[in-house]
Amino acid sequence: FKMIKAALSVLLVLVAMSSAKYIPKSGKRIPQTLSRGWGDQLIWAQTYEEALYWARSRNKPLMVLFHLEDCPHSLELRKVFSEDNGIQRMLDEEFIVLNLMYETTDKHLSPDGQYVPRIIFVDPTMTVRADIVGRYSNRMYAYEPLDIKLFKSNMEKAKKLLKSEL
Amino acid sequence: FKMIKAALSVLLVLVAMSSAKYIPKSGKRIPQTLSRGWGDQLIWAQTYEEALYWARSRNKPLMVLFHLEDCPHSLELRKVFSEDNGIQRMLDEEFIVLNLMYETTDKHLSPDGQYVPRIIFVDPTMTVRADIVGRYSNRMYAYEPLDIKLFKSNMEKAKKLLKSEL
What we know:
Helices cover 37% and strands 10% of the residues of chain A. The first copy, chain A, has five helices and four strands, in the order H-E-H-E-H-H-E-E-H. Chains A, B: InterPro entries: AGR/TXD, Thioredoxin-like_sf.
């Protein structure tokens, strides 16, 4: 009886070992999220191709946000952006959203150069709305925390869709 | 005294309300992860551009995995793939990893068409390793759960880097 019990314990340990999940040598990691702190409740597209597909098929404007996690300007904007429930609700209900830390190969997404933070709207007709700009003439698609009201009025502009030429 | 207490309660409620986070009408969502169940402990690239940058700068081979969350073949493969600690460790330590549900614009990533599941290796010289194939002649980059041993030997092939021509 004792033998069976011992055998069972060994078996249990073996089963537990074989089903143990992989853990990196450097320790367990927190799974990465697509939101990266810009709105945990939003449904973020992963890639520009995916975002364009969603924008077209749902006939919603797309917001593409370029940022970096070690850029203080990005982080300051992220704080007000993610905590503004008006922005979050409008993005969730009326926009397709994508945040990127690496540039795409599509040059239309950098009308006046590559910098962060930079926010570009794209119409569901796949036209980049280069006309929707912020306050700074040298970085036309940059926003600072104080520009949040301007950003909201730009969202309203983006919601007025261009007529499809199809 | 009672008045002050009442005023304080009102203030507290107001503070709590103003700092309440945005919650969608359909209810709170679980933040999306980049792993999508293919290895929660791996550091996944978000886009192909990002993945290529990492592959080049760290001189590691890149694995690009195309899948769909409503494809039973993808889900079957995901189960054995995510639970195989050998694969997970090797990917974590020696590869750059990317999983995609939408095709990129780069046709080199679909040498024999677009289907899922499909796994393509890319050398850090940015050469797509079209020579590293699975068992099926009509879908050369597909793997089934039973092909996991073949997949591991293909990972070994991908680790033997091509000589850079630079």
